[in-house]
């Protein structure tokens, strides 16, 4: 099998995931609460602590991304790759636990009032909107780096890196805002 054929297969998988994941997450948000309760997970289960876990995973992803950026600026490629793969694993764990949590728990409602409400919804909306393109951008940049296609990797990273950083950081901020309402 040629490299071009392999490339096309991987790109198809990346594009499929880039559509499937946001659609699946959106579906979870509109899934009726009665259906979620029917899955038999009580509010006292370990899954109830997942919002905190999500903040830890997002915060750790943010730290790994910053460390990866510093490493590549210092031309420490192996260190850069290690931090980037760690960030990818942490983000993947976040996504899996996020889906599990929202499959089994109704969405919490923000109860803040006044200016904090506008700040929260701005952060939440920008976080949600940017979490959609970060999927293909992160996957493509990791793939291009992994295959040593450095020119394409650099072009994608110009967009992927700041967006992924923002999504990871605002994920923590959303948790901080929502923490009293879980």
Q: Helical percent range?
A: over 70%
Secondary-structure element string: HHHHHH
Instruction: State the end-to-end CA separation.
Output: 51 Å
Number of helices: 6
User: Under the CATH scheme, which architecture would be assigned?
Assistant: Up-down Bundle
Broad CATH class: Mainly Alpha
The chain-level structural class is mainly alpha
Please give a quick description of this structure.
With 182 residues, this protein is mostly helical. The protein is built from six helices and no strands. The model has no long low-confidence stretch (mean pLDDT 90).
Your description of this structure?
The protein has 182 residues and is mostly helical. It has one domain (51-181): Up-down Bundle (Four Helix Bundle (Hemerythrin (Met), subunit A)). Helix content is 80%, strand content 0%. The longest helix is centred in the last third of the chain and has 32 residues, at 115-146. The radius of gyration is 18 Å and the shape is globular.
């Amino acid at each position: 099998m040629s490299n071009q054929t392999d490339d096309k297969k991987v790109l198809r998988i990346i594009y499929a995931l880039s559509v499937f994941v946001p659609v699946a997450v959106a579906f979870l948000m509109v899934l009726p609460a009665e259906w979620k309760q029917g899955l038999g997970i009580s509010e006292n289960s370990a899954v109830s602590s997942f919002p905190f876990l999500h903040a830890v995973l997002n915060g750790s992803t943010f730290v790994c991304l910053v460390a990866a950026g510093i490493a590549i600026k210092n031309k420490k490629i192996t260190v850069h790759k290690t931090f980037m793969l760690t960030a990818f694993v942490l983000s993947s764990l976040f996504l899996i636990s996020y889906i599990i949590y929202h499959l089994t728990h109704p969405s919490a409602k923000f109860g803040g009032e006044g200016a904090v409400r506008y700040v929260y919804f701005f952060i939440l909306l920008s976080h949600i909107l940017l979490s959609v393109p970060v999927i293909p951008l992160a996957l493509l940049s990791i793939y291009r780096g992994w295959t040593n296609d450095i020119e394409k990797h650099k072009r994608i990273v110009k967009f992927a890196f700041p967006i992924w950083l923002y999504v990871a950081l605002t994920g923590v901020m959303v948790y901080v805002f929502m923490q009293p309402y879980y």
